[in-house]
Design brief:
Elements: H1 14-22, E1 29-30, H2 47-59, H3 72-83, H4 88-91, E2 95-101, H5 102-117, E3 123-127, H6 132-140, E4 144-148, E5 150-151, E6 156-157, H7 159-168, E7 174-178, H8 191-203, E8 207-212, H9 222-225, H10 227-234, E9 239-244, E10 256-262, H11 266-283, H12 290-300, H13 302-333, H14 342-345, E11 350-352, H15 357-367, E12 369-370, E13 376-378, H16 387-399
Parallel strand pairs: 1-12, 3-4, 3-7, 7-8, 8-9
Antiparallel strand pairs: 2-10, 5-6, 9-10, 11-13
Helix pairs in contact: 2-12, 2-13, 3-12, 5-6, 5-11, 7-8, 8-10, 12-13, 13-16, 15-16
Bound molecules: 4'-deoxy-4'-aminopyridoxal-5'-phosphate.
EC number: 2.6.1.1
Family: Belongs to the class-I pyridoxal-phosphate-dependent aminotransferase family.
Pfam families: Aminotran_1_2
Length: 400
């Protein structure tokens, strides 16, 4: 009975926010969860989202159920944003797109597809990866293992290890790749490295499974951030791609994203789509409409689309400025000769500091800086004004 149920451990990422809320110290800083904050460290609703919502109110749209696959205008817009509207995959209707419950729900739906139609196939995850990937595949009953990714010696990519592990995986495995702005490391392959990754995946008959949670947020350009996925699509490879609008449109709580399966024919795509719908129906029946309308309105209106891009550049730019300031502060304070330039090379919301668990604990317990225990800090939750303080905390934790 219920008396026999044990307490679950706190979530390694969302649990950090819970601990932060309980801390009463004024200096406290939440660098745990990846959510964009303003320079004043307030949550930010994009102006373009408010405009789209205003339009939606004026139109007085209803709240009837969406179809299982979601809002048609959203599904069209999201696939086009991902691949580019003139991509042959779209022209030839070789893509099955289903609206999902943001990135997480989309990944979970794809995991259910893998479990049902590729029983026993393994998913390979980067080491390290976003912590929830493991939960998602565990809960879906999909076996997974890891490929080397992060090299602590260089605080960079272990490319040789990555390629060797993808080669060593059983033929026909699913290789989970972060489309851009790898979480938690902030380290992405170069375009040449992406080509080699695609070569090996092709040779081994694997299927690339992209998680795209930061399109437009990494470089500030939607097209540039989708170039990894587009490179694979241009080779005619079959793909799975999960998308999220949590970060790039700031729609965290609206739970809006999509799962895309790129197939070899239009017929296969429509069969895959029918099966995705069949999987979704008993799980949540159909997705929520609000976020889907926001995305469809923003992408479908040239003026709003332009405003969105400008706001994304602004957000990506603020994070880059903070990154630079943190680096400058660390270099000014650190007399040990340590090279902190890896911070500047990292991409996206996060910085992987190289701090271990004990050092991360010191950051929190002594300095009230909340971060995940793998040494990841969210620069989106940092302001220029707090960089000096954070650098002091890192110095103390790193060198003592
Ligand atoms: N994948 C990665 C790599 C992420 O970092 C995130 C957000 N932290 C997600 C997926 C999904 O987030 P959401 O469910 O809010 O879209």
């Amino acid at each position: 009975r219920f008396e026999g149920i044990a307490m679950a451990p706190p979530d390694p990422i969302l649990g950090v926010s819970e601990a932060f809320r309980a801390d009463t110290d004024e200096k406290k800083l939440n660098l745990g969860v990846g959510a964009y904050r303003t320079e004043e460290l307030h949550p930010y609703v994009l102006k373009v989202v408010k405009k789209a919502e205003q339009l939606m109110l004026e139109r007085g749209e209803n709240k009837e159920y969406l179809p299982i696959e979601g809002l048609a205008a959203f599904n069209k817009a999201t696939a086009e944003l991902l691949l580019g509207a003139d991509n042959p995959v779209i022209k030839e209707s070789r893509i099955a797109t289903v609206q999902g419950l943001s990135g997480t729900g989309s990944l979970r739906l794809a995991a259910a597809l893998v479990e049902r139609y590729f029983p026993g196939s393994k998913v390979l995850l980067s080491s390290p990866t976003w912590g929830n990937h493991k939960n998602i595949f565990n809960d879906a009953g999909v076996p997974w293992s890891e490929y080397r990714y992060y090299d602590p010696k260089t605080v960079g990519l272990d490319f040789e290890g990555m390629i060797a592990d993808i080669k060593a995986a059983p033929d026909g495995s699913f290789i989970l790749l972060h489309g851009c702005a790898h979480n938690p490391t902030g380290i992405d392959p170069t375009p040449e490295q992406w080509e080699k990754i695609a070569d090996v995946i092709h040779e081994k008959n694997h299927i690339a499974f992209f998680d795209v949670a930061y399109q437009g947020f990494a470089s500030g350009s939607l097209d540039e951030d989708a170039s990894s996925v587009r490179l694979f699509a241009a080779r005619g490879m079959e793909l799975i791609v999960a998308q999220s609008y949590s970060k790039n449109l700031g729609l965290y709580a609206e739970r809006i994203g999509a799962i895309n399966v790129v197939c070899s024919s239009a017929e296969a795509a429509s069969r895959v789509k029918s099966q995705l719908k069949r999987l979704a129906r008993p799980m949540y029946s159909n997705p929520p409409v609000h976020g889907a309308r926001v995305v469809a309105n923003v992408v479908g209106d040239p003026a709003l689309f332009g405003e969105w891009k400008a706001e994304m550049e602004m957000m990506a730019g603020r994070i880059k400025n903070v990154r630079q300031k943190l680096y400058d502060s660390l270099m000014a304070k650190d007399k040990s000769g340590k090279d902190w330039s890896f911070i500047l090379k990292q991409i996206g919301m996060f910085s992987f500091t190289g701090l271990n668990k004990a050092q991360s604990d010191n950051m929190t317990n002594k300095w009230h800086v909340y971060m995940t225990k793998d040494g990841r800090i969210s620069l989106a939750g940092l302001s220029l004004a707090k960089c000096e303080y954070l650098a002091d905390a890192i110095m103390d934790s790193y060198h003592n």
